[in-house]
């Protein structure tokens, strides 16, 4: 897999140099730019490995929590002084923080609140690809409703994770060791809890969150990657949602039968097909655009409507679904890694420096 | 008081007699007048209050002018300044006792705007009146709404709590119930919760249905005494009591604002306020500077360093204190907070920590990207944020790398008008960009913006590029001296930027501005304002060697030189002359230094630059001084026949010091001063040797110092100008 020069964006300044843009360091910055066609022209990888089923190393219980749910995605700047060994203490702090935030709006002191939230932060072992990746962290918040009976058990009300799968090694290595890079954040649950969790992370690890949309190109990649999975797990169908900027706006749901999609995909694949050389197969951007182009021209032949004028909003198969608003659902545990790899790449592209 | 009143009266009478009162007299008069009016108003207000406290019950309302007048006075005071606690007590008593019936009661209630606080006693008395007099229900509702509005302003709540049961009894009144529930919600304490009250509420609930106000009160009861309320309450009832329309709210806010108070009054419980602030936050959540707070999460390793006790930055309050604890300052939890405090910036200025700076840059970059990259309109917060950032950069005298990275992206999507001063300010802080990158990162987007924007943007951009160049040159002059011109970088970085690399970048920038300027002047018809900004830029460029020690001289392109020379305003010509003078000094000193240094050192100014300079100089001298404008070997090739055809007499003299459009006015003025008697003005008579030198003297005295320097340095009056030029032409 080739990686473009996007890693060079964070160029470490040597410690001996002052942070000031002295003549030296300003040229240091300049040299950073010298390496960076990446800076304004950073792009997704043009080629990636085909998804191959794995996950035998990931705890199935944890994996079950990740799949079958829709996650709202964000990107996160690197966490400062985050320690995987301190998760237990972080859990306590986060729980206390949530209670404190909850109480801010109340007119009276409510003692019950204190024990109403149970937070657990845990490591999802094995959800990494390269040695530079930091271990994935899973956050779960359990609570019971405010006026529940005493004996009612606590339910999971919110969950989220921070992950880095196959992050650009150049970028990860360029960070000082005080930083832990977990650029992809997924959350599920009430919005106010997401807000509280984010603000706790911001306050504690001096990081920032921003929304992560899945753009047109990434959605095309998902369409191709998931179709490519068909040989291992049945995709049922390939469904795409397009919007056409017409007046009134036109929304088109385009569903392709699994066999047709698979045949078309195999026809645009160059060289040995995935079925033949399963292991070393890599997918090129050319093949992806070719696949989508074929789908579009098929549509045009039937409806005289060119989908190129519109934008792809949503892609869904039985393996997963992705929406341009930044929502992702991974339905099949076997292809989680491939999906997260692409998303990690998207998140790293959003890093401000 | 009475004295001033008398005085002002006498003043007034005297002023009407005197036709021309002195200024001081007039002023004291006005002050006295104001004083008198104020006193009058106060008096009438006091009288009105006395009327309301003493008026007999049963006085007729209809046709009662006195009542009308007094009500008007009270309303005026209430809505302008608010009412004192005593006034509120008097008026509330008057209204609730229904001494004059219900219609004045409503009117009085509506103007009860407290200036400071409300006496609890008055509220308690009024609540008691609720039961005694026959107040219509709508008026009762109005009163309870008023109590809710001013609840936070009531000076104590203990007596109100004491009549909790009394207030509770109103809950059976259907129209009052929601408001009473709200009031009870605000008053309830644990000891107020009793089984019979819970029963009453449940009974009401079965009658009225699951009303939110009842649910709220019950939920509060349940919080206090869960054993009494067995009812299950949905975990998510819509938070907050309905925000009833309250006639006092805006008036109260206005009065408090003008009184400079920050007492927050609120009919809405804390819920709704919080909701609001969150929704506002959600829009621009990245723009709030984080609070300066110490680290929440102490590192385990800090135990070993705890021998050296750390001082959080937030505990420091003065520069002296900071100096004292310099070695043990602890950085805040969120580096973004440093931007908001000048003390912290001072610390940042000398801190050497790489990760601290990286944290700040992550935060800043994220905020800029999230809030501005796709921002389409200006908001107060955005403006505030960028101004903060600019003042921080100004303080540190440099930009942040994340804001540079942001700008390279933003320039491609910018419309050139959104937050223009701020964006241009940030842009001028960009550090040196290698010449291989500068075109793509800077010039391409800026060219597009320049040619599609208004004149003012063009001027703004010129100023910004001038500032950028100044900063680059200043960095060079400071650090080149330090490093003794050996500025190749150490092996840490992959690209060595040498002096020549730096020179290339500067040259690229200057050439770029030259291109923009030439075309910009054409597009805007040689606009004087734009020309002035362009000449600003060249004032920086012409001095690169002498002022900043950079062995580089770049001449302005013809598209800038000729419009400036032939400009119709004398200031532009004067500035051009100054610039040419400085160019000459720079070139001559560069040349003499070049002779001294070793030949192999890359210290060389190209022949082309000298040639171009001489070319401009010859033209300028020929034009202004020698009256040989269309001399051969100049850029201006106009055919002889064409010049004859134009019928301009003596066309070759048209741009000398006398006939140049910028100076004709001066020549005529000089002529009149020199020969005051002469009727017909023949400015050519100035050409004679003596008047000519007087004329020059006259021009220099008008403040044309540039011309003065230019004439003194480039034209030797004894020797002919040509010889002088020979001198500067030798290489």
Automatic annotation (TrEMBL), chain A:
Nucleus among keywords: yes
Entry keyword set: Centromere, Chromosome, Nucleus
Compartments, as annotated in UniProt: Chromosome, Centromere; Nucleus
InterPro entries associated with the record: CENP-L (IPR025204)
Cellular component annotations (GO), alphabetically ordered: chromosome, centromeric region; nucleus
Pfam families: CENP-L
Domain of life: Eukaryota
Family recorded in the similarity comment: Belongs to the CENP-L/IML3 family.
Protein name, per record: Centromere protein L
Species of the source: Oryzias latipes
Gene assigned in the entry: cenpl
From TrEMBL, chain B:
One GO cellular component, as annotated: inner kinetochore
Comp. bias intervals (Low complexity): 15-24
Coiled coil region boundaries: none
Transmembrane feature ranges: none
Residue ranges, annotated region (Disordered): 1-34
Predominant location: nucleus
Family matches, as Pfam families: CENP-I
GO biological process terms held by the UniProt record: CENP-A containing chromatin assembly; mitotic sister chromatid segregation
Keywords (A to Z) from UniProt: Centromere, Chromosome, Nucleus
Record localization: Chromosome, Centromere; Nucleus
Protein family membership: Belongs to the CENP-I/CTF3 family.
Protein name: Centromere protein I
Origin species: Oryzias latipes (Japanese rice fish)
């Amino acid at each position: 897999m080739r990686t473009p020069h996007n890693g060079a964006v964070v160029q470490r300044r040597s410690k001996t140099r002052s942070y000031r843009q002295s003549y030296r360091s300003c040229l240091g910055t300049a040299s950073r730019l010298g390496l960076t066609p990446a800076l304004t022209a950073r792009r997704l990888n043009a080629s990636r490995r085909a998804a191959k089923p794995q996950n035998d190393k990931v705890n199935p219980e944890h994996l079950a929590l990740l799949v079958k749910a829709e996650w709202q995605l964000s990107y996160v700047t690197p966490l400062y002084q985050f320690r995987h060994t301190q998760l237990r203490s972080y859990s306590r702090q986060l729980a206390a923080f949530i209670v404190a935030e909850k109480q801010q709006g109340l007119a009276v002191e409510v003692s019950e609140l204190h024990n109403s939230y149970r937070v657990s932060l845990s490591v999802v072992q094995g959800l990494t690809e390269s040695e530079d990746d930091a271990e994935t962290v899973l956050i779960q918040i359990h609570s019971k409703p405010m006026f529940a009976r005493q004996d009612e058990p606590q339910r999971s009300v919110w969950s989220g994770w921070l992950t880095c799968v196959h992050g650009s090694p150049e970028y990860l290595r360029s960070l000082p060791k005080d930083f832990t890079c977990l650029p992809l954040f997924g959350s599920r649950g009430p919005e106010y809890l997401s807000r509280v969790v984010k603000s706790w992370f911001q306050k504690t690890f001096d990081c920032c969150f921003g929304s992560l949309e899945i753009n047109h190109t990434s959605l095309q990649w998902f369409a191709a990657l998931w179709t490519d999975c068909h040989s291992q797990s049945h995709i049922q169908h390939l469904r795409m949602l397009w919007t056409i900027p017409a007046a009134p706006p036109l929304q088109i749901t385009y569903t392709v039968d699994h066999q047709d999609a698979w045949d078309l995909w195999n026809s645009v694949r160059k060289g040995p097909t995935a079925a033949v050389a399963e292991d070393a197969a890599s997918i090129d951007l050319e093949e992806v655009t070719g696949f989508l182009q074929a789908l579009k021209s098929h549509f045009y032949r039937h409806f005289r409507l060119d989908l190129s004028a519109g934008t792809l909003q949503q892609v869904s198969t039985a393996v997963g679904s992705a929406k341009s608003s930044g929502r992702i659902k991974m339905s099949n545990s076997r292809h989680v890694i491939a999906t997260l790899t692409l998303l990690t790449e998207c998140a790293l592209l959003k890093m401000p420096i | 008081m009475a004295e001033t009143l008398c005085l002002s009266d006498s003043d007034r009478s005297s002023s009407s007699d005197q036709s021309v009162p002195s200024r001081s007299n007039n002023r004291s008069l006005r002050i006295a007048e104001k004083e008198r009016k104020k006193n009058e108003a106060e008096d009438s207000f006091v009288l009105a209050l006395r009327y309301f406290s003493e008026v007999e019950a049963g006085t007729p309302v209809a046709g009662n002018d006195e009542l009308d007048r007094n009500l008007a006075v009270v309303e005026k005071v209430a809505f302008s300044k608010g009412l004192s606690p005593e006034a509120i007590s008097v008026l509330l008593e008057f209204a609730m006792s229904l001494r004059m019936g219900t219609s004045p009661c409503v009117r009085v209630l509506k103007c009860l705007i407290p200036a400071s606080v409300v006496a609890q006693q008055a509220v308690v008395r009024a609540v008691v009146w609720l039961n005694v007099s026959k107040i219509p229900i709508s008026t009762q509702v109005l009163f309870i709404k008023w109590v809710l509005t001013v609840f936070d302003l009531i000076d104590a709540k203990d007596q109100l709590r004491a009549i909790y049961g009394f207030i509770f009894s109103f809950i059976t009144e259907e129209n009052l119930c929601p408001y009473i529930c709200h009031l009870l919600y605000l008053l309830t304490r644990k000891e107020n919760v009793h089984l019979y009250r819970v029963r009453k509420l449940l009974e009401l609930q079965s009658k009225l249905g699951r009303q939110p106000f009842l649910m709220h009160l019950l939920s509060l009861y349940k919080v206090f005494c869960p054993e009494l309320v067995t009812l299950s309450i949905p975990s998510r009832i819509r938070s907050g009591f309905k925000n009833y329309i309250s006639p006092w709210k805006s008036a109260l806010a206005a009065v408090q604002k003008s009184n400079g108070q920050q007492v927050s009054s609120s009919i809405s419980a804390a819920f709704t306020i919080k909701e609001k602030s969150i929704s506002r936050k959600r829009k621009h959540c990245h723009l709030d500077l984080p609070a300066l707070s110490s680290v929440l999460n102490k590192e385990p390793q800090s135990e070993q360093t705890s021998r050296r006790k750390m001082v959080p930055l937030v505990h420091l309050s003065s520069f002296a204190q900071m100096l004292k604890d310099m070695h043990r300052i602890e950085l805040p939890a969120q580096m973004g907070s440093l931007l908001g405090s000048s003390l912290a910036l001072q610390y940042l200025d000398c801190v050497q920590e790489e990760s601290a700076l990286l944290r700040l840059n992550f935060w800043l970059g994220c905020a800029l990207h999230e809030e501005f990259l796709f921002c389409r309109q200006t908001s107060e917060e955005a403006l505030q944020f960028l101004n903060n950032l600019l003042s921080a950069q100004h303080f540190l005298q440099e930009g942040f790398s994340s804001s540079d990275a942001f700008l390279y992206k933003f320039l491609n999507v910018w419309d050139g008008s959104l937050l223009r001063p701020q964006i241009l300010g940030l842009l001028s802080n960009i550090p040196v960009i290698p010449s291989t990158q500068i075109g793509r990162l800077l010039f391409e987007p800026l060219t597009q913006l320049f040619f599609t924007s208004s004149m003012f943007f063009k001027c703004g951009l010129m100023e910004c590029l001038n500032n950028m160049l100044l900063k680059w040159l200043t960095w060079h002059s400071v650090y080149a001296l330090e490093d003794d011109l050996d500025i190749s970088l150490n092996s840490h970085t992959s690209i060595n930027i040498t002096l020549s690399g730096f020179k290339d970048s500067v040259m690229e920038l200057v050439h770029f501005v030259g291109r923009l300027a030439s075309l910009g002047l054409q597009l805007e018809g040689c606009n004087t304002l734009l020309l002035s900004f362009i000449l600003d830029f060249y004032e920086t460029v012409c001095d690169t060697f002498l002022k900043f020690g950079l062995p580089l001289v770049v001449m302005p392109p013809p598209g800038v030189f000729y419009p400036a020379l032939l400009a119709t305003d004398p200031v532009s010509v004067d500035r051009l002359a100054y610039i040419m003078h400085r160019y000459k000094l720079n070139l001559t000193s560069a040349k003499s230094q070049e002779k001294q240094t070793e030949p192999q050192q890359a210290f060389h100014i190209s022949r082309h630059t000298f040639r171009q300079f001489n070319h401009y100089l010859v033209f300028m001298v020929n034009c202004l001084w020698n009256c040989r404008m269309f001399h051969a070997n100049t850029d201006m090739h106009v055919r002889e026949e064409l010049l004859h055809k134009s019928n301009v007499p003596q066309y070759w003299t048209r741009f000398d010091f006398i006939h140049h459009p910028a100076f004709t006015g001066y020549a005529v003025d000089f002529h009149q001063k020199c020969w005051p008697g002469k009727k017909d003005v023949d400015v050519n008579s100035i050409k004679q040797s003596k008047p000519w030198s007087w004329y020059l003297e006259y021009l220099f005295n008008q403040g044309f110092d540039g011309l003065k320097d230019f004439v003194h340095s480039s034209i030797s009056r004894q020797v002919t100008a040509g010889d002088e030029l020979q001198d500067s032409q030798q290489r």
